[in-house]
Amino acid sequence: MHSFYFHDEHNLFRKSLRDFLDKEIVPEIDHWEENGRVSKSAFKKMGEMGYYGLGMEEKYGGVNTDIFYTIILIEELNKCNSGGTAASLLAHSTLAMEHLQKNGNDFLKRNYLKPAINGDLIGCLAITEPNAGSDVASIKTSAVKKENHYILNGSKTFITNGVYSDFMVIATRTENTGFEGISMMLIDSKWEGVSATPLKKLGWHASDTGEISFDNVKVPIEHLIGQENKGFYYIMQRFELERLVLSTGALASAEYALDYGLKYLNEREAFGRPLSKFQELRHRVAQLSSEIESLKSFNYQICRSFNDGKNVTTQCAMTKLLSTELMDKVSYQVLQFLGGYGYMEEYEAARLFRDSRIGTIGGGTSEIMREIIAKQIIQ
Ligand SMILES: Cc1cc2nc3c(=O)[nH]c(=O)nc-3n(C[C@H](O)[C@H](O)[C@H](O)COP(=O)(O)OP(=O)(O)OC[C@H]3O[C@@H](n4cnc5c(N)ncnc54)[C@H](O)[C@@H]3O)c2cc1C
Question: How would DSSP label each residue in 205-259?
């Protein structure tokens, strides 16, 4: 099944990526989990290896690849068992850079996208606000036009890379007309009036999650991304990739978790035999393995359609819903396989369990995914 979507060059890419991650990323993860952030040098190394250039414009240092290279990057990063590390390294490219690549002007691409591809600058995507998460259209942050600039005021919350990023791709209100009055802008984190504070959270400990405040920030007009008042449409368009990143990541994590759990079941003995000999546990592994394999197929099929330019909004909601909920189930069961050891920090199951919980919330909650699907299939 793998070869249906991945050819020899993909497989070689996966192998060299895996070697890179095992050498440069995995040894640092415990440290990042403690520190609450991925080091800047990790972004630089990823950039130097060309991982941030995948699918990006060649003019700015990117390389024209199909989506399955990005899928490999997402899968292998999620098999390092640190949801926070994967989130931080991928929010930079698949969220922030993606908006710039699709709708940014040449000035922004030269000054921000190019260095982002090289790993010299780190980006974040800031849409959520303290009073507006699922309901994107109700954001309050506002940018008022004055001659050749805007004056920006407001706040954002729960932003991945929010504290340590160099630039922020933000959604702001440019008119008071609901979803039609939203625009995207690029904010340089060094500008006067921009400040951010880190948030403590249940999981994803290696990613910096920030609350950001804008206090009379002067935004030059060329920092508008795309057209004024078209931001809501851009956000909805980019959600397709964001949801595929989350579904693919959840399935890769689920596969990793189940492999880990199965290894433990083979090694641990009770009542004179390995745990993997007990039918109750064998059947649970069989069930979860079947669910992962079938969803992987569905997910790859959607990735292919997305790559071919088809409209996959509903399918992205479906796979995001099912994959993240499956990862929750798998991480719960794997922790259970380990008994008391599963609850101990020194075993991988604990991190898998707490990192999984955000899957059904970020990038649109499960309830919102069901809402999107229902609207399409119930007339
Ligand atoms: C660790 C982390 C990282 C994040 N990273 C980013 C980031 O990088 N950038 C960014 O912009 N945002 C980010 N987010 C925000 C995330 O996208 C939001 O938390 C999410 O969209 C939900 O919004 P909310 O938290 O305001 O919940 P709410 O919208 O207040 O929802 C609360 C509950 O009500 C339910 N609900 C809401 N509306 C409906 C409805 N119509 N029908 C049924 N149920 C409904 C929801 O499903 C949920 O269960 C991050 C969040 C976290 C926790």
Answer: TTS-EEEEEEEEEEEEGGGEESSTT-HHHHHHHHHHHHHHHHHHHHHHHHHHHHH
| Residue with token string 């368009």 | 237
Active site residue 228: no
Taking the CA of residue 364 as reference, the ligand 1 atom at the shortest distance is 21
Q: What is the CATH number of the domain that holds 115?
A: 1.10.540.10
| pLDDT digit string, tens, across residues 92-141 | 999 999 999 999 999 999 999 999 999 999 999 999 999 999 999 999 99
Q: Which two tokens stand for residue 336?
A: 């259970």
The CA 361 to ligand 1 mean position distance, Å, reads 6
CA of 187 to the centre of ligand 1 (A): 23
- 284's CB contacts (< 8 A; 6+ apart) are 333
**284 is in which domain, residue-wise?**
232-377
Which residue CA neighbors atom 36 of ligand 1 most closely?
367
Whether the predicted model's global pTM rises above the 0.90 cut: yes
Residues facing residue 218 across a β-bridge: 151
* Domain CATH for 179: 2.40.110.10
Claim to verify: residue 202 and residue 278 sit in the same structural domain: no
Helix-helix angle 67-78:83-90, to 10 degrees: 150
